[in-house]
Description:
about 300 residues; alpha/beta; about 60% helix; rod-shaped
Amino acid sequence: MDLISIRRKYRNIRNIIIASFIMVLVFALIIMICQIFRLVKSEKIYVSYLKQYKKVLIDINVKNEQGVLEEERIRQERLPNLTEQGIANIENIYRSDTKRVFLTFDDGPSQTSTIPILDILKQENVKATFFLLGSRVELYPDIAKRAYDEGHYLASHGYSHIYSQIYASPQCVIDEYNKTLTSIRNAIGQPDYNPHLFRFPGGYTGGKYAEVKRQAATLLQQNAIAYVDWNALTSDAAGKTTTNEFIAELEKTVPKYNSVVVLMHDSAAKKNTVEALPTIIAYFRDRGFDFQNFYSVIK
């Protein structure tokens, strides 16, 4: 092989090597560019996901804050405040330009009566007022809390319901109110709850302890506590047992008033009151009464 052929051969080999290197370089460059595009795309996706994640967190925080604010608003609405207007409302509880009825239940809570009563009230979308005994609240705090959570008004009926104890002196009435108040607060988990409302066991008017009640009423007033009786009843605590008898008792008083406070009981033995309650609700609804509890009176 002559020198020219050898030189040509090596030149070709060199060109092949250079071409191969260039091809490898171009291929590597293409791969690098693809990787860069992939990284850029991944970064965009990451940034997009990060923005969405931040938005979700913000939305969750906003909803949580709104939820907390709403819970606090509802909590505040359920903390009665006895203002001058509230006192006037209590004094005029039996007078109204429009028809309204307050369903009230004394002597509970109990498992056999209060629970089905709450079920009926929930089904009928009616809010009631429960005058609770502190000793019973301590036995069934979960029932008291359910009544509170479902928007019913929890008031005091004293702690013992033993006349010789609660009416031993005017101060004993206040003491039983406060003891019941502690029981209610513990049951519902609201340490600043105060209904500012009391119902004397046996009613305020007359009886053996009339003078003690009169003096106790003054003490209650001095402690920002109102008291209320009733102007209609089913006589479920005085021997009446059937629904027809309950309605007949209501008929004796209800037609006289636009504003009606009905006395009933939810102690353990009041099965007949439970059975009659849907008919009692229908009785007032058919006559155009608006159902209220004492949240509309004591703001």
